[in-house]
Write a sequence for this structure.
């Protein structure tokens, strides 16, 4: 009985420690959607990304960003036409896991680390809706 219990525990630990799937290159380009609650209301962003540019469509506004890939799963995005000081700061994205046509990511403003500035990290899930890199 002890052997069965020990083997069961080893089996569970073996599968619990597996890395999540990360097929990041599949999500470098294409058309994507992302939903989040803003002020209690569900908002959707559609974005089109090629290797170096991302165009976001949100609330009847269009923003264009440059993309600099750090590795296959991380990139830094910078607004090309910032309207205020907070939009001037780049945003760091990291793809945490991929599954089918979706990926889970975390993102945060790029700031100099010091005691006063804490890095505020948020998470989201984006869905790839098309391989196309242009929006009709």
């Amino acid at each position: 009985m002890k052997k069965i219990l020990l083997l069961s525990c080893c089996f569970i630990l073996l599968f619990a420690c597996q890395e999540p799937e990360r097929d990041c290159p599949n999500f470098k380009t294409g058309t994507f959607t992302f939903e989040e609650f803003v002020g209690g209301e569900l908002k959707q962003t559609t974005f089109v990304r090629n290797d170096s540019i991302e165009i976001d469509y949100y609330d009847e506004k269009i923003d264009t960003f440059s993309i600099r890939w750090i590795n296959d799963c991380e990139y830094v995005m910078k607004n090309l036409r910032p309207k205020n000081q907070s939009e001037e700061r780049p945003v760091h994205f990291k793809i945490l896991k991929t599954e089918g046509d979706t990926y889970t990511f975390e993102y945060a403003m790029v700031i100099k680390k010091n005691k006063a500035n804490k890095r505020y990290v948020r998470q989201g899930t984006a869905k790839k809706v098309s391989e196309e890199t242009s929006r009709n």
